[in-house]
Design goal:
By secondary structure, this protein is mostly beta strands. About 0% of the residues lie in helices and about 50% in strands. The chain is built from 1 helix and 19 strands. It has one helix at about 90-95, and strands at about 5, 20, 25-35, 40-50, 65-75, 85, 100, 105-110, 110-120, 125, 130, 135-140, 150-155, 160-165, 170-180, 180-185, 200, 205-215, 220-225. It starts with a strand and ends in a 7-residue tail after the last strand.
Amino acid sequence: EHGASVYPVGPSGHLGRPWKVEDPGGVWGSEVSVALDSRGRIAVGILYQDETERASSLYHGGPGCCLRVAIASWQLGRKPPAAEALSPTQDAETGSMHHALRAPRLVIGRSAITAIWTIGTEKEQDGFSGPGEVQIEQAYGRFGAPLHTAKLFAAPKGVAVTNLSLEPDGVPVASWLDDHDKLHTVTGSHTGALRRPTLVQRAPQLSYPVGFTNDDEGDTIFSYFSRSSRNTS
């Protein structure tokens, strides 16, 4: 409740004393994501239920509304700061139909953090997103400092898979599958900001996505099951 506990694990496998990352006004977190680099810098993303007291006209609407995203970053060995809320405050009428869907994906570049997450009314149907527009949001900025947020992309038919990685020079790269079979990949800058997509590539005969991975050279790889008139491979 009220945040996330991050445990260090030593070479022996024993857990050390945890760090407590407070979320900004939520009661519980449903998902947590972590990024750690070789310099001992850590970033934690929390998907949490916002329970901040607000008036609601919905019957049994409760004191707050919706799933929101918060991120904290700090140097290992220091006390973690309170997580910074990055998705907007909404009322119960609109928020229940347009809230964060997953904990943010995070990468730590040479001097900046990049994060992406989805907001919308996504529904899974046979492994794919159902009706309803889904937005991809991004946050970026200097490590340990307040982050900037911006809308990266809007997919009319949902987003099924996302990926965030770093090129060998520390520049962020984001990829995702949207509208069932459209692949987008965008690069960023050393400020952590991602550019908006300009090109789209389709995954031919896509039946079910397996997901993204990255090789040692920073290349992004997408794999999936394909279908033909005779079978699925």
